[in-house]
Amino acid sequence: MVKKKKHIKKKRISIIALLIIALAIGFYFIFLKPAYINCGMLLEKKSSSRGTFLKLKYDNKTYNIKVNKNNIPDAIAYDVIKKGIMVKNIYPCTEIKGTLISFDNKKVELKEGTFLLNSEINYYNNKLDKTGTKNLLPGSTKCKFIKNHNEKIGAIITENPDIEKLRVGISTSDFSSLKHLVLNFTSKKGININILDKTINLKRGLELKTVYKDGSIELYSIDKDNVETLLDKTSARVYVASADPSSPISCPSLARSTSFTPSYYGVMEISINDDSMKLINEVDIEDYLRYVVPSEMPSSGGVEAYKVQAIAARTYAISDMLSGRFRQQGFHVDDSTLSQVYNGQPSNSLSDKAIADTKGLIMTYNNNIIDAKYYSTSCGVGAPFNEVWFNNKSELLKNKEPYLTFNDYTESNISSLSDNEKASQFLKDWTIKSYDSFSQFYRWKIVNISGKDFNSIVKNNIYSLYVKHPKNFKYNFFLNFYKPAVIRKKSGNTKEADLDDVTDFTITKRGKAGNVMEAVIKFGDKNYKVIGENIIRNLITPSDSSFELIPIYGSKFKCPRALPSGFFVIEKEMSSKGIKNMNIYGGGFGHGVGMSQYGAIGLSRQGKNYDEILKTYYKGIEIKSYTDLFK
User: pTM of the full predicted structure?
Assistant: First the structure.
C-alpha cells in the first residue's frame, strides 16, 4: 500500500514537472522568443482605435502583425522585430528604383549607387510570388530594391526584363582583354558626352580621347592639328554617343588586325575597373547583329546563309543575356568568341537585309529559347551537347539540350563513331562528301611529329592546364582505378611538369560523333587520364604554333594554339622507348555542336531556305518572334 502511494506521488510530481516545462516553453514562445521579418512586403494595412494591422509577405509565408499605434509611416515593406507575439520594433523600408549595372551575392550596383545585400534576401515577381535572380540583368530598369533599416537590400522585386537592348563588353583590339588604358572615339556627326548631370558636346571633326590615370578618367578633345585639350577628369561613369543616333561612333584605338576600325551604334559606357577602364556598348539588338552577322558568317553563302546566322546569333545573344553569365561584370555578352564575334568585320547591305527580313526571330524548343550553339565547320557529323559539355556522369548520361543531338551530314548512314577504328576510318577518308566538305577545314592533318617533340609539348603544357582544370586530371593508382592527380612543376623550370618522359598516348573515350572525350598519357610507366576535348586539344598542341597543318584544300599553314577540333585520331609509330613518330588526322573546325556555318552555306547553295537549314541542325525547334515569347 505504501509503495503504491509513493508511486502515485512520483507520478504526480512528474506530471507537475512536465506542466511547468510546457508552461515555460509556451511562455517563451508567446512572450520571449525573438523573431525577425526582414523587408516583409506589405499586402494590406488597416488602422483602428486598437492600433495598426499589417499583412506582410515574407519568404513564402503571410504574417498578420498588430502594432499598438496608428502613426506608422506608409511604406512598401517593413522590418519587424518581435518577442513572442509582441512587436518590439517596426521600421519602414525604403524603395529604390534605378538602372541595374551589376549584381553578385554581396552587392548590387545601380547607376544611382552601390548597396550591400542583406545576409537573408528574398526575390519576388511583381505579384509577390517568390522567384529567383534570373531577371536581375544589367541594364534593367524594372527592378525595385527594398532597403531595410540596416541600409542593406533585403528584398528585390523583378519583372521580365527588356531584351531589346544588349550590353556588350568590349575587348581590346586583339580581343585578349577587357581592360583599357586609352580609348579614342570619332563620329561624322559629332559626339555627345554625359557625366553625371553634365553634358559636353564635341563638334564634328573633333576626336575624343579618354585616358585612365591614377584612379580617374581624363577626357581630352583632339583637333585636326592633333592638339589635345583637357575637357574633364572624373571617377564617375562616362557615357559617349554619336550626336546622331542613326550614325555610329567609331573607335580607332580598337582597330582590328584586319585594319578594320570598329563602329558602334547606341551608347558607349566607360567606367573605372580596378587599374583600367571598362568599356560597355549598350545597343539595340538588331543594330548589334549588324556587326555580328558579317563577322561570323562568310559572305559566300548569300542572303539565305546570312538569315540563318542572324536568327542563330539573335537567339544566342538573348540566351546568353538570360543566363546571367556576365552579370557580375555588368554586361550580357562579350565581343569575342566567348560569346560571338562583334565588330570583327564591317556591316554590309546583304547582311543588313537578312537581319531586317528576320527581325525579332529566334529559335525555341518547348516554348523556351534555345542555346543556339554554332561553329565553323563540321567533319561530316554533329556531336550531342552532353558529350562535349559535362561536369559529371549524370550530365553526361542525360542531354539537357535535346535539340543539340547527334547528326549525320553525309550519305554514309553513320550511326556512331565512338569506336577508335571507325573514327580513324572516317577521319582519314578525304573523299566523303558533306554539306560543308568544300571548307578547307573539313579534313586536315599534321604529320611527322617526333616522339621527342611530342614529349616536350605535353610536358610544357600539362602543368598550366592542370592548374586551371585540376578535376580533369586523374592518376592510375591500381588496375583500372583512377584518383585525382597531383601534378607539380619541375624545380627551376617555369613551364615543364615534374613528370617522366611521355612513352605513350591513347584516346580512351570518344563521343557518338567521334569527338575525343578522354585520353590516357603514359609518363614512364605511370598512366594519367585527361578528361575533356578542349583540354586534350590544348595539351598536345605547341604553344608557339610550330605545327604545320595540311588542309584538304589550299596550302599548309601554321596550326593555331589548339587543334582545330576535337574530332581527330592519332597514328603512332612506336619504338622500344615509346613513341617514335606520330601523325594526327582530323576534321572540322570548332566544337561540333549545333550549326555548322559552312554547312549552312552549303545548304543555302542547294536552294534551302533558312527554316530548312536551321531545322537540319537544331532538331524539333520552332522559329518565332521573341516578342511573342516574352509577352
Answer: 0.88
